[in-house]
Amino acid sequence: MDITIDLEKCTGCGLCLKACMYDAIRIVNKKAEIDENCTLCGACVEACTFNAISIAGIPVKAQDFSDYKGVWVFIENRNSQIAEVSYELLVEGRRLADTLGTTLAALAIGYGIKEKVSGLFDYGVDKVYLIESPLFENQLDDVFAKAIVQTISRYKPEIFLSGATSFGRSMIPRVAAILKTGLTADCTGLDIDANKKLLLQTRPTFGGNIMATIICPNNRPQMATVRPHAMGARGTETKNINYASLNHQENPSGLAQERGTPEVKRGDIIEIPIQENLFKSRLRLLETIDAIEEKINITDYDIIVSGGRGIGCAENFGLLRELADLLGGVVGASRAAVDSGWISYPHQVGQTGKTVNPKIYIACGISGAVQHLAGMQTSDVIIAINKDLDAPIFKIATYGIVGDLFEVVPRLIKRIKSGKKLF
Ligand SMILES: Cc1cc2nc3c(=O)[nH]c(=O)nc-3n(C[C@H](O)[C@H](O)[C@H](O)COP(=O)(O)OP(=O)(O)OC[C@H]3O[C@@H](n4cnc5c(N)ncnc54)[C@H](O)[C@@H]3O)c2cc1C
Ligand code: SF4
Ligand code: SF4
After folding, report:
1. What was the pLDDT predicted at 239?
2. For residue 43, which of 74, 26, 18, 77 has the smallest C-alpha distance?
3. Domain 2-56 falls in which CATH fold?
């Protein structure tokens, strides 16, 4: 591949300079010049409104994607329980499908989930595809990946979404690699480019310092994993349900072969039988060990009182616990507090901790680094207590209290105990 600038067209406007994250462009004598730092990322090509930059040799597959239709969501489940993130994705998937004017389908693979899947229609799903077998009792990446690849190859969804859980992060890349399509992992936002009908997949990058929006124009399906709680579950609508088990005959792929396409009505559960002998795993589950950590899940709480380095020591978290208990909430923490050993990891909020979306988030002695904000900035109300007026947390706070937390928090506690309003 080679990048060139058409000097006739280049006006020296500098738009490309701003777009280049690799500092590879200079404007010399009112013309752009590109040096060896260039990674051929293509950002400047998009940015140049004068069409002066081109990259030659990018292999663009001229493919017909007209067979690919619909938005699909993978329904993650364990011990007959559907993961919360799958519901969040269904709500988001419905919105994307409506924008595209297409259908929303759920793909549930597991064991002992048949009774649960009808509830998916409450989330605006048009069809549920169900693969039930004891083979899927444990979350073995390779058997799940095989079943998903074969289902996608048959039904051809244009968009396929999954939760960025530990299982999703480990299994879905296999699916994308086998299908030779793109996958954007760990998205925090999804949308549709209305003109090009492409999925816009947004995720933090460069250590959370910038948000990148990624597209997959040359392959199908467009695949993304999405962080739990990045999108809250919203309103739902109940649909009529029909059960439609497919007529099938055996086929070498392992999935049942349809005889003709059945008329699938809105609200249908389509059971796909499999040939179990063709789904042998190369993995062997020896033992399941519960994580040796506190069982707290801070994402379940509507109020989180978080402490950062400003708390100073483990004992001082007692103050935040008192406030959290009074409010019926839970204690959260920044990574600095967790790394200092003042509180355990399940309490950490942020890019490498939990993504939370509470009604009230109270940040005490937390500066507001982007990696922390990535995990809590969608909270309904953010209250920041910090003695530094210039702390970045104040830029996103609904209410900011500039002061020493060891004076402010006890006063808040006193006020709550006296039954007075906080603000
Ligand atoms: C790849 C990567 C991933 C990361 N993931 C995360 C993550 O998931 N979560 C996370 O939180 N961070 C994460 N970080 C770390 C992040 O960059 C910051 O270092 C961290 O969030 C800082 O924590 P803090 O705000 O508690 O500490 P500091 O930045 O040191 O801020 C302490 C704040 O406390 C205030 N303060 C001090 N004393 C008082 C007082 N008595 N009263 C009131 N205010 C006081 C200070 O003014 C200051 O603003 C990550 C970093 C990287 C590179
Ligand atoms: S954006 Fe285009 S026109 Fe402007 S300086 Fe860069 S190459 Fe030249
Ligand atoms: S292709 Fe990417 S790295 Fe190269 S000059 Fe353009 S923006 Fe910079």
Report:
1. 43
2. 18
3. Alpha-Beta Plaits (3.30.70)
Given a contact cutoff of 8 angstroms between Cβ atoms, the answer to whether 387 and 408 are in contact is no
Q: Domain locations in the chain?
A: 2-56, 71-278, 298-417
For position 61, what pLDDT does the model report? 56
| Distance (Å) from CA 1 to ligand 2 centroid | 20
- Tell me if residue 21 falls in helix, strand or coil: coil
Q: Give pLDDT, residue 292.
A: 54
| pLDDT-flagged residues of the chain (< 50) | 234-252, 257-265
Q: How many CA atoms lie within 13 A of 143 on its CB side?
A: 25
pLDDT for res 259: 35
Atom 2 of ligand 3: nearest residue by CA position: 41
**pLDDT tens digits for range 330-370:** 999 999 999 899 999 899 999 888 889 999 999 999 999 99
Residue at 421: amino acid letter: K
Selected from 1.10.760.10, 1.10.10.60, 3.40.50.1220, 3.40.1000.10, the CATH number assigned to the domain covering 298-417 reads 3.40.50.1220
CA nearest to 247, candidates 269, 272, 278 = 272
DSSP codes of every residue in 279-329: ---S---------SS----GGG-SEEEEE-GGG-SSTTHHHHHHHHHHHT-
Choose one of 17, 41, 58 to mutate for the ligand 3 pocket test, by most ligand atoms within 8 angstroms of C-beta.
41
